[in-house]
Structures are given as structure tokens and as C-alpha cells.
Amino acid sequence: MKKEALLYNKLKGAGVQCILCSHRCKIPDQKLGICGVRQNSGGVLYSLVYGEIIASNVDPIEKKPLYHFLPGTQSFSIAAPGCNFRCVFCQNWQISQMKAGREVSFEDHFCPATDTVNAAVAQKCASISYTYSEPTVFFEYCLDVSKLAREKGLKNVWVTNGFMTPEALEVILPYMDAANIDLKFFRERSYRNICGGSLKPVQETIAFLRRHNVWVEVTTLVVPKKNDSAAELRQIASFLAGVDPDMPWHVSRFFPNYQYDKEQPTSEGVLQSASEIGRKCGLRYVYVDNVFGWGSSTACPKCKELLIRREGFFIRENRIENGACSFCKTKIPGVFAPQPQE
User: What is the rounded distance in angstroms from the CA atom of residue 140 to the CA atom of residue 312?
Assistant: First the structure.
């Protein structure tokens, strides 16, 4: 569905400037922004993907991944086409790299915001996640769904590259409960050449959301020969620890995909080293994702007892009680639902 966009300014003639993401695209009449799903038509900026939901699933919240936000609950997960990055190793490129007028019509999958929220309630989900592609580029729909979700007692989760403007963050902030943000590199050149973005806005988004009490976890997909050096991983971990040492960092295993399909998966040894680097830099919660059998469980940082034992995306044991370690009573940062009484 075509809908007038939020967050843009009119320019001289029929031009517009989108101020939704940090590209701040200046878009001539009848042209698209970098995301491929926002179009200037006669001096009015339109979203071409409002309500055009091409993926919806009930996922464990751990799949986002979020490990300290309502663990063990289900999240109704939705996506519309498009992205403001062009990552050569994108894991969801089939939907994130769609553009208007090319692979797909954006008028085949319309789902009213009320239907999305009602489906989440019917499936007994605790939250709605805006995920798979980049939620920033279907911002207007996310905002409308988020408002309705709040009315139904549901939480709102963003899985994002963090390339939003301060203006966009101010609009969505009252309705955002948690976010997993990709911090892909710690070099501007890598962001520019590999993703078509930049580092500083992502850093600012992470710091802004934590400062405003949105629960944030950060993911770094560790890609061989791109960001797997000890020096770069140390820079990422040090930055995160400087923002909040209690903010979980997920170091995630890369598997060949999209335009970077000739490389081998990340070795488990590199991931183990990354997790050790994170802890040495002061992060209290470092997780290894996309591996089997280790790296995803939560331990108390004080007494070291195992608190949440995970297998894949599923919780097999949870010993956090009222947000604290059940052994030494140390408060565990995050958002935890009360445990059922036996």
C-alpha cells in the first residue's frame, strides 16, 4: 500500500529530503531513496511498503536474538521488503534487497495493522518484532502497529542495523521496548564499502537507546577476513562496555550467503576468542550464536552459577527469580517475566 511517509522535508522544485535514516537521501521527483521503497511523487514522499508484509512468523524471542528480554516467550515477527544497507553477506537478502518495480510488486501482501496485532494476541505472543529486513524502511507501519500493540499489552522489539536518525528515534522511542542492533564493523571504510553505510550513526543509536532505558542487545556477525581480527573485535567490545557493561553482546557465526558465498563459515575458535575478548573488555554477558551446544547460556556474573540453560533457541532451565540470581540474589539486568509458581 502506498502511503505518505513521515519524516521528510520538501526542497525547491519537486525535490524532497528523507530524514528517516542517516543517508538523509535527497530524492528528485519520481525517484527512489537508497532503500528502494520510498519514492518522491510530485514533491510528496511515499512509503511503497506500508502494510506489505511478506514474512510473518511466531518465533522464540531468543531468535532475535534477545536473551535478557522476556526469555522463553514468543514474539510475532513481521517484515516488509527493503533495506537501507547493501551488505554483501546479508543473511536475509531475498527480502531485504527487493526494490520497487523489480523482483516483486509491493501490492500483493497488504495486512492492516489491526490484523497484525490481533494475530499476535491470538498466538499468545508477548511481543511483536519488526525484523528479517530493516524495520526503519517500513517505519510508518511499525509505528502504527506499535501503538496498537501497546494498547493490547504487547511489547515492541526492533531488530535493526541502527542507522536511524535522531528524528526517527524520537518518534518511535515511546513505543520501543527492546532492540537488537547490528554493530557490523568498527571501521568507517568497512561500513562504507561493504554495507553502504557508516559507523557513527549506529554507535549513536546504541548509546541513545540505552540512555533512554530501551533494553538493547548487540549482534556482530563475525565474518572471516572482514571483521574477525582481534583488534577490531576488541574495539567493538570496548565501545559497548563503555556504553553499558551489562549490555549483552552476541558474536554470531557467519555462514556463506548472498554475494559472499565462497568463504568458509566462521571457525568456532575465532568465536571463542571473540567471546573472551568481550569479557576481558568488561562485558558481563557475551554470547556465541549460530553454533551448537555451547555459548548461549546465561551465568551469574558474581557467583558464576548457571542461570539460564539454552539449547538453540529454547530454554531448558531458568533460575532467574524476580530478575535476580536464585543462588546469590545478584540482580540480573534485563526484562524478566515473573516465573510461574509450582
Answer: 33
In a domain, 316, yes or no: no
3-state secondary structure of 287: strand
Structural domain contains residue 75: yes
Q: DSSP secondary-structure letter at 50? A: T
- Among residues 253, 320, 246, which one has the least CA distance to residue 284? 246
**The pLDDT value given to residue 189:** 96
Question: How is residue 132 written as a grid cell?
Answer: 528479517
> What's the DSSP call for residue 63?
G
Average pLDDT value for residue range 62-72: 97
CB 142 within 8 A of CB 177: no
pLDDT (tens digit, 9 = 90+) per residue, 18-61? 999 999 999 999 999 999 999 999 999 999 999 999 999 999 99
Beta strands in the chain (DSSP E): 3-4, 8-10, 16-18, 26-27, 38-41, 44-47, 55-60, 74-79, 127-130, 155-160, 178-182, 215-222, 249-253, 286-289, 298-299, 306-311, 314-318, 320-321, 324-325
Beta carbons of 86 and 251 less than 8 angstroms apart: no
State the pLDDT at residue 17: 98
Nearest to 292 by CA among 313, 320, 277: 313
- For residues 98 and 137, state if they share a domain: yes
Phi first, then psi: what are they for 278, rounded to 5°? -55, -45
Domain encompassing residue 35: 3-47
State the total domains in the chain. Answer: 2
